[in-house]
UniProtKB/TrEMBL annotation:
<feature type="region of interest" description="Disordered">
    <location>
        <begin position="493"/>
        <end position="513"/>
    </location>
</feature>
<protein>
    <submittedName>
        <fullName>Hydantoinase B/oxoprolinase family protein</fullName>
    </submittedName>
</protein>
<dbReference type="Pfam" id="PF02538">
    <property type="entry name" value="Hydantoinase_B"/>
</dbReference>
<dbReference type="InterPro" id="IPR003692">
    <property type="entry name" value="Hydantoinase_B"/>
</dbReference>
<feature type="compositionally biased region" description="Gly residues">
    <location>
        <begin position="503"/>
        <end position="513"/>
    </location>
</feature>
<feature type="domain" description="Hydantoinase B/oxoprolinase">
    <location>
        <begin position="2"/>
        <end position="511"/>
    </location>
</feature>
<dbReference type="InterPro" id="IPR045079">
    <property type="entry name" value="Oxoprolinase-like"/>
</dbReference>
């Protein structure tokens, strides 16, 4: 395929998924999608290999959503699918690693032949079960599990599945509204693909898929080959559980134009919801390698091919059923920094110091004045780690790109009043370049007594380390009515209680002059 045609088709396909993502944002019901951008939209070829991803999609979904499409195909082979079908699941192990993410996929047919899939993942505002926190001991406590099913068959929604979903969540209108936004997005993408096929007289997407994936694979392979062969290791401790930290270990081996990562030596899976499913471990690992070696190549299946990831079964980075994993981000977001720490031995100029992540999250379950359930979910960021040529950015999520929830959205949608939101000056680690600062957010609870609140928070005991002599950032803190509380436990609120979250600073880079 000549370069001009390839570039034209490539950019046209990106515009199709970006249009779909924009439509999804405008039609979604929850702050999770509309304000925090916790979703992804992709197009795959007919076998489930990703071709393009929407520009604003989360990095973690680069590796998980195509795997979900391929899992759908195992359950529903291509010859059993028809126009108007939409498949759905939130399977922890074949999905994104936790139940709140609902994944849907629509097979796209052209002139009677299956040519592609449009797929989307979005974080639901609620999935039932115990309020999202690290507390659940097994997946059955975490909410509704949706097996691989057909949400639509030939354009007709499964009303039994719809009723079952609505009955099992606290905010059925929000959950169903976001799901409708997802499925409408897939239909819009289908129309865009049909238009592309007709305009350029294409019969299928096989050649385009091969070109896109092969070029991305070759680009990353070339970048890997430029790194000296060898094995580079790193170890990091997380806050872990109340009684013990969690240890993460990785060995990154460069051999020719391939890279392998081995997480042997990492802690065992735990009876808490911080286990990180292999699908998420794989995706975060691939993302880290891409960021360090070839950040500008397109996000598609090709760049994943030269990367292999080994993680021992029953470890914290490869748990087995029925392990819980609703808070898997509390482990998964450490993985890119861990890999960067290993690569700093050989390419220090191309990696970041650790960030004040994992991203922090507040979860609130309460009743409104009429006794109806409410569920709220809001995100907040720590400071980004410093790089070899610049300071870290304040209050910026990394390795995720979830947007912090605006104060106005919180005030309008939850029984919480934002008392203050301010940068914690100097909380980033010192160095030749400073880590980004974290932030302090204080809320006052205005609802009925008895609301349950939980948090996803890390780096309250283990700071984000610096790199190349840079100093660590400040740890974060979590307080209710001025007293430090256990960030891994659920808490009960009374009207007038004040909650303060202080997110961690990022690590510094290099020795200060």
């Amino acid at each position: 395929m000549d370069p001009i045609t390839l570039e034209t088709l490539w950019t046209r396909m990106i515009s199709i998924v970006d249009e779909g993502a924009a439509a999804m944002l405008r039609s979604s019901f929850s702050t999770v999608v509309r304000d925090s951008y916790d979703f992804s939209v992709i197009i795959t070829d007919r076998t489930g290999n990703s071709l393009v991803q929407a520009t604003d999609s989360l990095p973690s979904f680069i590796g998980t959503l195509p795997r979900t499409v391929r899992a759908f195909l195992k359950e529903y082979p291509a010859n059993t699918l028809k126009p108007g079908d939409v498949l759905i699941t939130n399977d922890m192990y074949d999905g994104t690693g936790h139940l709140p993410d609902i994944s849907v996929a629509r097979p796209i047919f052209y002139k009677g032949e299956l040519i592609a899939f449009a797929a989307s993942t979005a974080h639901a505002p609620d999935i039932g079960g115990k309020i999202r926190s690290p507390e659940p001991r097994e997946i059955f406590e975490e909410g509704l599990q949706i097996p691989m099913l057909k949400l639509f068959s030939g354009g007709q929604m499964d009303q039994t599945l719809r009723a079952f979903l609505r009955k099992n969540v606290r905010v059925p209108d929000l959950v169903e509204g976001d799901l409708a936004a997802q499925t409408s997005t897939l239909e819009l993408i289908e129309r865009g693909i049909h238009s592309l096929m007709a305009q350029y007289h294409l019969q299928d997407l096989k050649e385009l898929s091969h070109e896109i994936r092969t070029r991305a694979e070759n680009a990353l392979a070339t970048a890997i080959a430029a790194v000296p062969d060898g094995s580079y290791s790193a170890e990091m401790e997380t806050d872990g559980l109340t009684d013990s930290p969690i240890t993460l270990r990785v060995k990154v081996t460069i051999k020719g134009n391939e890279v392998s990562l081995d997480f042997a030596g990492s802690s065992q899976q735990v009876p808490k919801a911080i286990n990180c499913a292999y699908c998420y471990t794989l995706s975060m690992s691939a993302y880290a390698i891409k960021c360090a070696l070839a950040p500008d190549i397109p996000n598609n299946e090709g760049f994943v091919t030269p990367i292999s990831v080994e993680a021992p079964e029953r470890s914290i980075v490869n748990p087995v059923f029925p392990a819980s994993g609703g808070s898997r981000v509390l482990i998964g977001h450490y993985i890119p920094s861990l890999i960067f720490q290993a690569l700093a031995e050989v390419i220090p100029e191309r990696v970041l110091a650790a960030s004040g992540s994992p991203i922090w999250c507040l979860n609130l379950a309460s009743l409104d004045s009429q006794g109806r359930p409410q569920a709220n979910l809001f995100f907040f960021n720590g400071g980004m780690g410093a790089a070899s040529s610049r300071d870290g950015i304040h209050c910026m999520s990394w390795p995720g790109n979830i947007s912090a929830t605006p104060s106005e959205a919180i005030d309008q949608t939850a029984p919480l009043h934002v008392v203050h939101k301010k940068i914690i000056r100097g909380s980033g680690g010192a160095g030749r370049y400073r880590g980004g600062d974290g932030q302090s957010i204080m809320f006052e609870y205005s609802g009925n007594d008895g609301a349950a609140i939980s948090f996803l928070s890390e780096r309250t005991t283990q700071p984000a380390p610096g790199i190349q002599g840079g100093l660590p950032g400040n740890v974060g803190y979590l307080r209710i009515n001025g007293k430090d509380v256990d960030p891994k436990s659920q808490h009960i609120l009374k009207q007038g209680d004040r909650i303060e979250m202080g997110t961690p600073g990022g690590g510094g880079y290099g020795h200060a002059s």
